[in-house]
Amino acid sequence: MYRQIAVPPVGLHSVEEQEELGRQARKSLPRSAARDCSVDGRDPVDLITAQDESRLASLVPLRHARMGVSPFRFYRGTAGLMAYDLAGQADTGVNVIICGDAHIGNFGFYASPERNLMFDLNDFDESAPGPWEWDVKRMAASAAMASLAHNNDRKDAERVAAKAVGAYRRAMKRFAEMPMIDRYYLSVRDDMLIDSLNGRSRQELTRVTEKARRRTSEQAVQKLMVTGPDGWRRFREEPPVLQHLRSADQYAVN
After folding, report:
1. pLDDT higher than threshold 50 for residue 1
2. Distances in Å between the alpha carbon of 80 and those of 36, 102, 130, 155, 173?
3. How distant is the alpha carbon of residue 135 from its chain centre?
4. If 161 and its partner were Cys, which of 92, 136, 140, 220 is the partner (CB 3.0–4.6 Å)?
5. Phi, psi of 96 (to 5 degrees)
6. What are phi and psi of 213, to 5 degrees?
7. Residue 142: what pLDDT?
């Protein structure tokens, strides 16, 4: 059963007032309650199958195959299942527009209109009003599972999740102290991230950003299109992932 803690709406408050609202919420819902999660009575297969009914039937087998590669891949493809589980947990009642799938695989680099390489969330097809806790929990759980996928032990996975949540907490505290207009224009560039690291981590991130810079529109054209006998470029036909629409389907898309 969905439970929500009654706290005053956040609105426009000073930093001190926001901190006090946070303390009130913590009294009603201690942080230790975040670990409580009951999944009794739900069948994950039934929930996934129900979701499949609204997806393209030709792509469902491919989706299942990708999810079956590892627990990490399964988790990445089951945002709906996690939302179902989280809906039965208590939350502070502070709702925002959440990403809905704040899995670490949905964070990445993209180019700004000024051609600067930025780091941020890049997937918003699950966005909806919801408790802020949902995004944080999904992010932390995905970080832990990514650690386990790299053959780290449980303690390492817990440490990674704690670091992810700690970084979120520090960032939110910083944002709360900033003017709203500054928060609006705040961005994270690749050089800012690289400068914050050292050693192997810095080398790895540099490699990743250099690869991201090569993913341009021109590169996408070369990858996704072919030149026909008439000299015109057309999208490749690589079913089931990439294929042309039938005439009968075009009206449904529009």
Report:
1. no
2. 19, 12, 13, 27, 29
3. 7
4. 140
5. -135, 180
6. -65, -25
7. 97
